[in-house]
Structures are given as structure tokens and as C-alpha cells.
Amino acid sequence: DGYGPPFAIRPVFSKHCTVAINPGAIATSVSRWTLDCGDKGLAQSTIAFPGLVKNFVEVLLRLEWADGHSQTTMLSNGQETFVIPEKTTVFAVGQTYLKLGGEHIFSGIDHLLFVLWLVLIVSPSWRLVKTITAFTLAHSLTLGAATLGFVNVPQAPVEAAIALSILFLASELAHSRMGKPGLTEQYPWLVALTFGLLHGFGFAGALTEVGLPLQDIPPALLFFNVGVELGQLAFVLTVVAVMESLKRLGSQNYPRWLGWVPTYSIGTMSSFWCIQRVAAYW
């Protein structure tokens, strides 16, 4: 399979491989090929993506052999060719899924907004460390359980509920600004733990789309989760650094109404997401 905009998915296979089945579009950014590589097999053959550097596109390449084992690798915009190894190493699997996890957290604006609200409500302190830790443990648990098939939750309702969780925290932040501490301010770890279980199902949905190599499930799942956590940690540290910088610059001199802008903006956005996602499967 090749994942990326249609114009970029034009692979050139080794000469001894012939396309047995023409690609069929599964979605706007997914194409699939079935190859017959004869006696030489697929190992050590080359797949090229001409123009990948020029178009600034990344390709997620998933290979499935006739015997059932699979391999997933990421081709960045600086790499146009890929030589298929005879055996995938744990290091290669870890590298691919670590990058996928990091990219997913930074492309998932809803997850980042939830974490942002936690930081704004709890403020930088040991309570924030405990809160983020609770969120991490919770979504790691459901990510693993859902990915391994122990729990099966429909993705559409999960995405709608995630939007609702952001709206809930926006409401909590509004009450906090009015001097009325809500549940999140009083028990931040409990809220983070509860909604973390929900967000883990969201991460699992993204990982399911990519797929896990059957022979390397533990390292792939582990490194994907590590990638998510590293991305989340980088985001939290950036937000805290910005908050501390604003304090030193004298943020108390800013107009009072300015502090309400992000609250109402994100609250409105999350309301729209919730309605949109519910309408999508209603």
C-alpha cells in the first residue's frame, strides 16, 4: 500500500516484478498494488517514487507478503527509493513507528488542545506533572488494549466524544476564570485519567489505519506510544515556556478580555467538531 496524495503515489518497481492487480483507490490518499516478482521474490528489490523530493510528500509504505508477514516503513521527502530487506530489524520497526507516533500527536489538533487546556487549568506545578502522567498512563492503556483487539470501540463515536472532552475543559477553564473552581481544578488527575482512556481509543484508530506488522507487534506498539509521549512532552514544555515568558513580560498588563479569547475560540471550535462528528454517523 502507498499512503499519500494521489499525484505522489506513482511507484516504479524492479524490472522482474509485474503488477498483477492494478491499484484501486481505497481513499483519496491510499493506493494498493499486488505484485508478482517471480522466483526472485520481493526481497532486495527496489521501489522508487520519482518526484517525491520535489513534491515535499511523505509516503507510508506497507508491504504484505504471501506468507502473511508484513512490514511498514516511512519514506520522507528526502528519500525516493527503498530497497526491501530480506528481514526487518527491530531497530527499523522502532524507528518507523516512533516517527509515526510523533507525527500523529502533532497532526491531532484535538489531542493537543485537550493537553493545552489541562496545562492552562492546572498551571505549571507538581500537580501538572501528576495530571499529565495520569493522562499518559490512561491513553497508553486503552491504546494497547484496542490495538491488540482486547477492546473494540467504534471510531466515529470516539472522535465525537473527544471533541466533547475539549468542550468540557473549555467550560471548566471559563468557570475557573470566574473564580468558580470546577472538577478539573479540584481533581485534575481524575479528569485526565478518565478522558485519557477515551483519547487512547483515538490513538488506536490512527494506529489501526497504519497497521501493525504481525511479527513485530510489541516493538511497533511500544515505539508508537513512545513517539506519542515524546511529542506530547515537547508540546507541554513549549506551552509552559510560553506561559513563563508571558509572565516575565508582564502579562497582567494585558486587557482582561484578551484572556477570554482562546477560551471562547476553542470552545466554539470544539462545539462545531462535536456536532460535525455526531452528524457524520447519526
Low-confidence stretches: 1-8, 24-28
Radius of gyration, in angstroms, nearest whole number = 22 Å
Please describe the biggest sheet, giving its number of strands, its sense, and whether it closes into a barrel: 4 strands, antiparallel
Q: Spell out the helices and strands N to C.
A: EEEEEEHEEEHHHHHHHH
Number of helices: 9
Structural class: alpha+beta
Report, as a whole number of angstroms, the end-to-end distance.
Answer: 31 Å
Q: What is the overall shape?
A: elongated
Mean pLDDT: 80
Strand content: 5-15%
Tell me which oligomeric state these chains represent. single chain
- How many β-strand runs? 9
Any overview of this molecule?
The longest helix has 32 residues, at 217-248. The protein is α+β, with helices and mostly antiparallel strands and 282 residues long. It contains nine helices and nine strands. The chain has helices at 52-55, 90-107, 109-122, 126-147, 155-177, 183-186, 188-210, 217-248, 261-281, and strands spanning 2-3, 12-13, 18-21, 30-31, 34-36, 46-48, 59-64, 70-75, 81-83. It is elongated and about 75 Å long. It has a four-stranded antiparallel sheet. A three-stranded antiparallel sheet has the order 2-6-9, with no helix packed on it.
